[in-house]
């Protein structure tokens, strides 16, 4: 294994890992605040990939520009899903904590509906966005870097930093953190908890709107694309530490780099198995995740 | 005749089949301090949770300053002016003291005055000003209770409810807390205090209610209740 190939693999892994982290941000945020594991997370990414695809294929809208429509559309979808579908479940459990299993089953149902609806509406064909311009790879320190992936990874870091900053400093951000820490106390302080939940779900999906737009430039799009990203996001979130935003990016990078480097030695499939073994191994030593607090 | 700050009529509530409140009736005149005492499980905390809208009533009525508030979601109850410092403090442990207090000033009315209110809370509990940037989890039990009371004050309550403020505190802290409560009385609000510390709270209260098995079993001025044999035997062990 020569040094060039290794550093190429590491670079690629960093970029892909950053994107994994960015995709997982919404899952982490939603879990951190609502304590709901959103099994449909990948399906929302799939939808947002299709939004950018159709905007490009029907209206010829540039995939990067489509983020301007994709983000608010996904925000509204997430807000509506929480307010109309998940909220009644939480309400039924009144003051008690949401039963993780019932919420998981509900979101698993949303996943099945969305994936199959997409299959019915769009068919099983794999589609790809072809931009009219060619984005050449950049050469960084003698290593070729895919510019679409670089944009995705940089966006992930920026979104993670902006989200942390916003949660720490804004009025609504503080309300979201208060609700995450103690839902009843937040309600007794005058915070409209159902609204905070819906906004949080909306933000989680809105972030997917951005990544759907960015990833549509280099990911083959099909109705079943969501599940693998959903599961990867789950691994990334648990690995990084549930609810931790920096943990999300770090967890993504760990998985991304491991997969990219391992696939230089073994097949990509075996590398994916290896990344699950790494996941188990890290959790044995750090059960709360890399950035998690036990 | 102004309407009572808080008026509860024949309130019923519970968890599923377990009926906890079986017809509670009580009233807080404006600017009064009313004590609510009773054994564990009598329904005191359930009463506050029901007023706050965290628990659905199954019957009866709750009015704040003459306006019905039952059926409102919890945040609207706070907007209407009923704010409680809940049992067990329920602080936001990942936040600093200052942030905990700021969350308290969430409603528009409270936000508009939050700088002034914060000053007042710091005046009431100077130790909080000193330690305002420390995480809430790093405080002693007494200081955490101060944060909980301070957070409730930040919402500018018309009726302030304190649920077991002295629970688990060292005797010196209990005294300090009661001092603070008498200072809070100077503000334009009515206070409902739930206490295990029956003697101390009835000493200072204008009026008291005894809750037993989800019903008011006795009521009267603080002095009357303190002189009552049944109460002395059951709650004071005299």
TrEMBL record, chain A:
CDD domains: TM_PBP1_LivH_like. InterPro entries: ABC_transp_permease (IPR001851), BCAA_transport_permease (IPR052157). The chain crosses the membrane at residues 14-37, 44-61, 67-89, 101-122, 150-167, 195-221, 233-258, 264-285. GO terms for molecular function: transmembrane transporter activity. It is found in: Cell membrane. It is a multi-pass membrane protein. This is Branched-chain amino acid ABC transporter permease. GO terms for cellular component: plasma membrane. It comes from the Bacteria. It holds the Pfam family BPD_transp_2. Keywords: Amino-acid transport, Cell membrane, Membrane, Transmembrane, Transmembrane helix, Transport. One of its GO terms (biological process) is amino acid transport. Belongs to the binding-protein-dependent transport system permease family. LivHM subfamily.
UniProtKB/TrEMBL annotation, chain B:
GO terms for biological process: L-amino acid transport. SMART domains: AAA (SM00382). It comes from the Bacteria. SUPFAM superfamilies: P-loop containing nucleoside triphosphate hydrolases. Keywords: Amino-acid transport, ATP-binding, Nucleotide-binding, Transport. Residues 6-238 form the ABC transporter domain. Gene3D superfamilies: P-loop containing nucleotide triphosphate hydrolases. GO terms for molecular function: ATP binding; ATP hydrolysis activity; branched-chain amino acid transmembrane transporter activity. Pfam families: ABC_tran. Belongs to the ABC transporter superfamily. This is Branched-chain amino acid ABC transporter ATP-binding protein. It comes from Metarhizobium album.
């Amino acid at each position: 294994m020569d040094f060039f190939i290794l550093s190429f693999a590491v670079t690629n892994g960093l970029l892909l890992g950053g994107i994994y982290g960015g995709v997982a941000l919404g899952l982490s945020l939603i879990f951190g605040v609502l304590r709901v594991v959103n099994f449909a997370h990948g399906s929302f990414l799939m939808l947002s990939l299709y939004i950018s695809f159709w905007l490009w294929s029907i209206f010829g809208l540039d995939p990067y520009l489509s983020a301007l429509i994709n983000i608010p559309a996904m925000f509204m979808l997430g807000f509506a899903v929480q307010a109309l579908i998940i909220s009644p479940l939480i309400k039924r459990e009144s003051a008690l904590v949401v039963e993780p299993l019932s919420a998981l089953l509900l979101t698993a149902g949303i996943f099945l509906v969305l994936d199959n609806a997409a299959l019915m509406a769009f068919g099983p064909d794999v589609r790809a966005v072809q931009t009219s311009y060619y984005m050449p790879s950049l050469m960084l320190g003698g290593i070729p870097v895919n510019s679409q992936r670089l944009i995705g990874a940089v966006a992930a870091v920026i979104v993670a930093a902006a989200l942390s900053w916003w949660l720490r400093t804004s009025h609504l951000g503080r309300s979201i953190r208060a609700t995450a820490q103690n839902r009843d106390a937040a309600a007794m302080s005058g915070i409209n908890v159902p609204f905070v939940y819906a906004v949080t779900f909306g933000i989680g999906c809105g972030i997917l709107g951005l990544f759907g737009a960015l990833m549509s430039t280099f990911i083959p799009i099909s109705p079943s694309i969501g599940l693998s990203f959903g599961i990867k996001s789950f691994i990334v979130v648990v690995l990084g530490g549930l609810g931790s935003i920096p943990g999300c990016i770090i967890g993504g990078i760990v998985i991304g780099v491991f997969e990219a480097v391992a696939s230089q030695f073994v097949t990509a499939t075996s590398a994916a198995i290896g990344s699950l073994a790494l996941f188990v191994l890290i959790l044995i030593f750090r059960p709360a995740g890399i950035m998690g607090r036990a | 005749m102004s309407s009572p700050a808080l008026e509860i009529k024949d309130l019923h509530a519970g968890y599923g089949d377990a009926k906890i409140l079986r017809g509670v009736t009580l009233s807080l005149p404006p600017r009064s301090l009313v004590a609510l005492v009773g054994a564990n499980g009598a329904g005191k905390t359930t009463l506050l949770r029901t007023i706050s809208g965290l628990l659905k009533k199954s019957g009866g009525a709750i009015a704040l300053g003459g306006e019905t508030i039952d059926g409102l979601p919890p945040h609207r109850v706070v907007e209407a002016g009923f704010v409680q410092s809940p049992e067990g403090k329920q602080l936001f442990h990942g936040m600093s003291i200052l942030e905990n207090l700021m969350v308290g000033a969430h409603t528009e009315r409270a936000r508009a005055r939050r700088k002034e209110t914060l000053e007042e809370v710091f005046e009431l509990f100077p130790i909080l000003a000193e330690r305002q940037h420390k995480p809430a989890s790093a405080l002693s039990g007494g200081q955490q209770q101060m944060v909980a009371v301070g957070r409730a004050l930040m919402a500018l309550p018309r009726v302030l409810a304190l649920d077991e403020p002295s629970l688990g505190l060292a005797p010196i802290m209990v005294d300090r807390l009661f001092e603070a409560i008498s200072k809070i009385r100077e503000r334009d609000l009515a206070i409902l205090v739930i206490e295990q510390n029956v003697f101390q709270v009835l000493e200072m209260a204008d009026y008291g209610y005894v809750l037993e098995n989800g019903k008011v079993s006795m009521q009267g001025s603080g002095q009357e209740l303190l002189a009552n044999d049944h109460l002395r035997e059951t709650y004071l062990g005299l």
